[in-house]
Amino acid sequence: MSSRHPILGQFTRWAIGLALLAVLLRTIGLDDVRQEFARVQDAPGWLAAALALTFLALFAGVVRWHLLLRAMGLPTPFRRSFRGFFIGQFFNAFLFGACGGDLARAVHAAHAHPARRAEAVTSVFLDRALGLLVTLAFGCGLLLLRFRYLANDPHASRAGWLMMAFLAAATGGLLLLFSHNIFARLPWLARWQHRGWIGPLVRRMYDALFFFRQHGRHLFWPTVLSVVNLLLLAAASGALARAMNLALPFMDLLTVFPIITVLAAIPITPGALGVRETLFIQLLQPFGVAAGAAVSLSLLGYFAGSAWSLFGGLLFLLAPRPTNPPP
Predict the structure, then answer these.
(1) pTM score, two decimals?
(2) pLDDT-derived band at 51, boundaries 50, 70, 90
(3) Measured distance CA(167)–CA(159) in Å, rounded
(4) Which of 49, 52, 57 is nearest to 226 (CA)?
């Protein structure tokens, strides 16, 4: 019975996403979306540019994770980091969402480093957290610079304040966790770390993260690559906007893109299907983008990412299976 729960949960999430998308398409009008897609057929060059930019953005993510693994004393062949990252993208898009994709990556990394599984799993968490934190900070910085464009729209202003709240919470959490070694500061936690198997595991994961408090220089290039990843994904969306002949300046798109990225990361539906389209409509409306064009732009971006996620699925099928799993 328990084995059915993940399948049922996944089916439910897909049903929610498709239902949200169906409601949006019915409200907007399917003909409007068809017309937007028809324009793209006359711009194969911009479509190819969007696919290329999406791949480069994902490749920056591969390099970021690879550098974090190396900094944590987990040297990994680049081809293995590449394969593990894209396998995670496949699970992100089609199966269990961001959490499932990270789990797939964590399993992949743990197999590569059986003696240091806790640290390998932590590298995936750190990679995800760093990307989101940089996106939050970058997005909040742009919001402060261009808040007047969004302040008069209720949906956009609420999303902006939510981003600010997320950034404040993330900053507070980092200060709480890393201002001091909490295992040395809290006696009850120091005692708990020796109990069972979970205590030592959590301590090792915390130590792997706390390493960067004293060696923050190792986060410089991963942080830069997080910015590059964000800019390239926004540029891919901009290329799709050009393919649609959409009069949307890149700076306007870049203002809302980090907000959409952060809020769509909440694992409600697979690949944020339906959720992401709603965010595109609400956040591009202040810039004069019609609902049909916003949904089409979102779906085209989803298809571009899905193409490379399918590539990750192919890598998953071709990946060698360990004959003797580590104990």
Answers:
(1) 0.90
(2) very high
(3) 12
(4) 57
